[in-house]
# Entry
Amino acid sequence: MDKIVRTVYRQLYKKAASVDKDIAMRSVLTCSPQRLYDHRRGVWIAFDLAKQSGWPESRIFLDSLIRKLNHGRDFFIPQAGRDADDDGCRGGSSEGNRSGGNDSGGSNSSSSGHNNEDGNKSNKNNTHGGGEPSPTLLQVLRKSFEETPFTVGQMNNAFAALKELAYVTEMASKHYGSGVLPPKEFDTLPKPKLTVVDTVGEMHHLSLTKGLSDVLERLSGEEKGMVSRKSEEDVRVKEETKDGTGKGDDDNDDDNFGLSGKTPIKNPFETPKVVHMLLAHPQLYEFFRYSVMIVVRSTPNEAAAFILNKPLENDEGMLMQVNSTIRLNHVHPILGKHLGNHTVMIGGPVSRGSFDSSILLLHRIPDVEDAIPVSQSLWVDGNYDVLQKKLDDGTADAKDIVVICGFSGWGAGQLAGEISSGTWVVARGSANDPAMDDFIFALARHAGVSSCGAPQQPLESASSSSSSRRKAKKMPQGGECRIRSAAAWALAYSALGPPYADLARNQKPFMQDPREN
# Structure
């Protein structure tokens, strides 16, 4: 019996040492959520999954072990300057997935971003989750096993932990080098100076909040007494039907402006001082998998963001363009005239009313009246007639516009709770950073290809073998779309520098879902 015990613990510590050396592998270890968000009441409520599901003691132990390893979070996020070192955490092996999900696509950290060394020297002061380093797996195991008396139950716990770590290391070895790297065409793209933080700063100054309220909570023109963003003829007819003089109620209402084709009331918006981006944890699945978002609203009661790297696809995995998706006779002519070949990007699962009424434009065209600033040279919407005139006379380029449908929204305290659980890595940058807007557009441009008129680029994976390249070329269109989205996600992580860039090596080959083999 003693020999069996020693053998099990020896193997357990050996596997733990391997996982400790690689941040990507450590990030595979996730635990069950302890609370759920009640959207109806707008509060977090406690939830005991182990009790609800009748877990055995060994699984409860394993879940508790991983939570200790993750500093109390559901997901592991490294501590900058503490969890990374030259000898360990940027090790060469990759990772698998505890739940059958993310098999690794990794190599050493030098390959997690093509331009990390030059582009991220300013990111070494990133902080996340407090001042203390995350405990190593070896430390947690020793505390769990060596400081408590031996029992049969403890032996079962050791077997459960060994099985978990064996799966992680096995998948890491099996899928080493199969992950998607940041796009090589952006090697020379200057990366913004980003800092990883624990919270999203409030964006609650009156003008920005009011403008986004009109966009995100927009009612139809008939309901609110404002013109909608349709054709110039529709706008003119609706204006004339308000009263005999051709003036509607909105002509005297400062709240109703900007998104129509009519001459807007001058109302300057305040430009935010910082930009916040949300990077999905590699173990986050379903709708937000491998997503990168830019926060456009943050108040104590709600938050909103746009996904930058999620193109709209049909059932066959083909990218959907404006002219084949939107009823052009129900929207402003700019969409059909100049943006018809743009890929529709999914900003999130939340919309207001019809698909057509949920369309927004993210652009970097200056001097557009009533455009809502996201950074120094990045705006949302504005007066569409002004935008169209600039495109007509050649003073603006349609490549500087991204067509977005819907947005991602959170209730009171919901986003903060998700951040504290490790669901999102929050990156903060200056709105005045000249590299910020180019970087944000690069993410959307690569994921959507035609969303900004960018040419198709060859896909690049961590594996340089000809067989891997042949597989990528033969992959269905849907697989290519997912790879491009994941590559944009990896690009965003590469801008954070070590140790966060290593999280992007936690990928499942060819973007399969967890249930797929």
